[in-house]
Amino acid sequence: MKKASKVIISCAVTGAVHTPTMSDALPITPAEISEQSIAAAEAGAAILHLHARDPETGYPSPAPDRFYEFLPAIKAGTDAVVNITTGGSTRMTVQERLAAALRAQPELATMNMGSMNFVFSGAARHYDTWKFPWERDYLLGSEDSIFANTFTQIEYSFRELGDARGTRFEFECYDIGHLYTLAHFADRGLAKPPFLVQCIFGILGGIGADPANLSHMITVADKLFGDDYYLSAFAAGRHQMSFAIQSTLAGGHVRVGLEDNLYIAKGELAKSNADQVGKVRRILTELGLEIATPTDARAMLQLKGAGNVAF
């Protein structure tokens, strides 16, 4: 693992799992997404991981036009690295999931490293009424869908988004096998170091949020990639902050945001994405760690620069 002297904080602003009923703070409209993104960057996030939603209903949207309703404002309002999802949601086709990134040509995009069950239906049992009629069925439907990321689809993303457009990737690894998949594409020369390996814990269908699992993921990644990768890690839900701290103590980076967890403390909803970024920054600073700026992140990850995107 490359152990940087500064910690990159990524903020996943809205995602495609949580629904509007769950928190009034979840950004839905373009104005909310751009305002919360800029505030998260001001709080210390060097990277902003972005999804789009229908502004009327909050339903996750893959439409490039939806992304362009907030991308220019974010670029104008902050120097943070924009990281556009190619994961979208399990209800979208791969073509839909890639469309926004192919058009926007960001510095960074996510790449999911394997097909999997991606289940988040458990949240449905906590609510009796919903703001929008789609929410309950959307959550329950995750039990009967596959999050598809085949080798053919992954290779297509490397060639069309990476080689053709100069975008680099945050490799989202939900289990040990996903690390081996990344190693396969590295051996073929499609994945190019330094790799930003985002280890994800606590999704039903992926590896569990047990601290021992993060240690094991690091052991395997060290064997596969040596010092050609940067570690980042997060856990969904209540384990968010503890995994952030474990990642940094191991020499890695962190991701927070309302995509992954709606709370700031036990039983207390976060007021914004900046709320979480500010908290993790305070903790890391008190541990004596320095926080990376967007310029630092670009240098570490060898990104093409904000002047070379298409928005």
Automatic annotation (TrEMBL):
Its cofactor is Zn(2+). Pfam families: BKACE. InterPro entries: Aldolase_TIM, BKACE. The keyword Metal-binding applies. Gene3D superfamilies: Aldolase class I. GO terms for molecular function: 3-keto-5-aminohexanoate cleavage activity; metal ion binding. It comes from the Bacteria. This is Uncharacterized protein (DUF849 family). It comes from Kribbella kalugense.
